[in-house]
Design a protein that fits this description.
Length: 282
C-alpha cells in the first residue's frame, strides 16, 4: 500500500519490540498485492513474520509456510546439509516430521535422489510440504506408519527434525513459538527425546545397508541419542556447526548383508545432570 511509509513501519515494528525492524519493514513492504497495514497489525500483534508474509527463507530458498505451522529454523540448515551430503545419485530419501519439507527441499534441489518421501502428522504442515516439494511423495501420519512397504530396508537417508524441547521447557520458549506453532511441533516429552527415540527404534526396519539416519538435537541431548543409535547397531557420530547453532546426531547402518538391527526399547531417559534444554525453536 503506497500510503504506508517505510519509516512508519519501522517505527511501529520497533515499538512492538521487533529487533530487526528495518529488515522486517522491507519484507512487509515488498509483499505483493496485499494490505501492508493489515500485515503490520498481525506482526505487531505477535504473529511470526513468516506466517504473516507466507514464506520463510531457508538455505537460500523461499519456502511456503502457512499460519499455525512450524517455521523452520536456521540451525536446521545443518541437518539439511548432512542429509544432502549423504544422498548419492538415485538414493531413496525419507524425511520424517517434515513440517513444510525444508530439509527434503534442500536434498531434492541439490542432489539427484530417485525418490523423496516426506511425512508429518500435521495436515497443515503437509499441505505446505506439497507446495514446497512438488516432486516428492508427501504423506500425513505418525512417523513411519504411512510409509509404503516397498521402502522397507530400502531407505538410503532417513532424516528428521522431530520435536525435541523437553516438556517443562516449552513454557520458557518465546511467545511467537508458544502462541503460533502447534504444541506437537515443539514438545519432545520429559527429556525431549521421546519422538527421536521412536525414530531410532524404527530405523532398522527401513534403512538400506549403509543407510544414514540423521536427527537434529541439542548438544545436551546428543550423548543420549548417540547411545540410543549405538544400541540398535548404528555407528553413531555427532556433527555440529557453531555458526548455525546446529547439532545433528548421525547413525550409519552396517554395510554387511546379514546384519540384524535390534529394536530399541522405547523409554523416557532422565536428562543428564547439567544437560542443556535448548529449544529447537528459538
Ligand atoms: C520441530 S518441528 C520440525 C519441522 C521440520 N522438520 C523443520 O525442521 O522445519 C517438528 C514436526 O514434527 C511433527 N510431528 C510431531 N510428532 C509427529 C509424529 N508422531 N509423526 C509425524 N510428525 C510428527 C510436527 O507436526 C512438526 O511439523
Amino acid at each position: 500500500m503506497a500510503s504506508v511509509r517505510h519509516q512508519d513501519v519501522v517505527d511501529e515494528l520497533r515499538a512492538a519490540g521487533c529487533v530487526f525492524a528495518e529488515d522486517e519493514a522491507r519484507i512487509l513492504l515488498e509483499a505483493p498485492d496485499t494490505d501492508v497495514a493489515a500485515l503490520l497489525a498481525r506482526r505487531v500483534g505477535g504473529e511470526p513474520l513468516e506466517h504473516v508474509v507466507g514464506w520463510v527463507a531457508f538455505a537460500g530458498a523461499r519456502l511456503s509456510v502457512a499460519p499455525g505451522v512450524f517455521v523452520p529454523r536456521r540451525r536446521t540448515e545443518l541437518l539439511a546439509r548432512v542429509a544432502a551430503e549423504a544422498t548419492h545419485d538415485g538414493a531413496v530419501v525419507v524425511e520424517l516430521c517434515c513440517g513444510i519439507g525444508a530439509v527434503a527441499h534442500v536434498v531434492a534441489t541439490r542432489r539427484r535422489p530417485a525418490r523423496v518421501v516426506a511425512v508429518d502428522l500435521d495436515p497443515a504442515a503437509t499441505a505446505c510440504a506439497r507446495v514446497n516439494l512438488p516432486q516428492a511423495e508427501v504423506l500425513t501420519g505418525d512417523l513411519v506408519a504411512p510409509l509404503p512397504a516397498d521402502l522397507r530396508r530400502a531407505v538410503d537417508v532417513l532424516v528428521a527434525n522431530a520435536p525435541y524441547v523437553p516438556t517443562a521447557a516449552v513454557e520458557t520458549m518465546p511467545r511467537e513459538a508458544r502462541d503460533h506453532e502447534p504444541r506437537i511441533a515443539l514438545d519432545g516429552g520429559d527429556d525431549g527425546l521421546d519422538i527421536a527415540r521412536r525414530i531410532v527404534s524404527e530405523a532398522g526396519a527401513w534403512l538400506a545397508f549403509g543407510g544414514v539416519l540423521a536427527i537434529e538435537t541439542s548438544s545436551g541431548q546428543a550423548p543420549s541419542l548417540t547411545t540410543a543409535m549405538t544400541a540398535v547397531g548404528l555407528h553413531a557420530d555427532v556433527v555440529t556447526d557453531d555458526d548455525l547453532g546446529g547439532v545433528v546426531t548421525v547413525g550409519r547402518a552396517p554395510r554387511e548383508q546379514n546384519r540384524e538391527l535390534p529394536s530399541l526399547t522405547v523409554g523416557t531417559a532422565r536428562p543428564r545432570p547439567g544437560a542443556d534444554t535448548e529449544a529447537s525453536t528459538t
